[in-house]
Write a structure and sequence with these properties.
The chain is built from five helices and no strands. It has 117 residues and is mainly α. It folds into two domains: 31 residues; 81 residues, no CATH class. The longest helix has 29 residues. It is rod-shaped and about 90 Å long.
Length: 117
């Protein structure tokens, strides 16, 4: 069986074009693998949950009868202990949760600091 002379350059062109399309698609075209998309969706979901729960945490701090003492402890705590101070105050424990959420405590501490200034 004889193959036409144009077939070999055509096959090479198609292979090079496919590789080039993949490289450009993944680097500039916004394509991504399923794993990357899943990681991005998980991160976005976590951020949205935290942004929805921060007002609950701030509200819990506002209705706490010992708010002044706990805020004073928060102000006097070192920067790397403030998250633990918010968690120990009970403000980062949403009703129905077994214990405080560290990410929520950090976000709540930042919101409380922003509200204080």
């Amino acid at each position: 069986m004889t193959t036409p002379t144009w077939l070999k350059p055509g096959v090479y062109g198609a292979a090079i074009g496919a590789v080039l399309a993949m490289v450009l698609g993944f680097s500039w075209g916004g394509w991504m693998t399923g794993g990357s998309a899943s990681e991005m969706a998980d991160k976005l979901a976590q951020e949205q949950v935290m942004s929805a729960l921060v007002p609950v945490c701030v509200n819990m701090s506002e209705i706490d009868p010992d708010r002044a003492e706990k805020l004073a402890a928060l102000e006097s705590a070192s920067s790397f202990k403030r998250r633990d101070t918010v968690a120990d105050a009970g403000w980062a424990t949403i009703p129905g949760m077994a214990g405080p959420d560290r990410n929520l405590a950090k976000a709540c501490e930042e919101a409380l600091k922003a509200n204080a200034s």
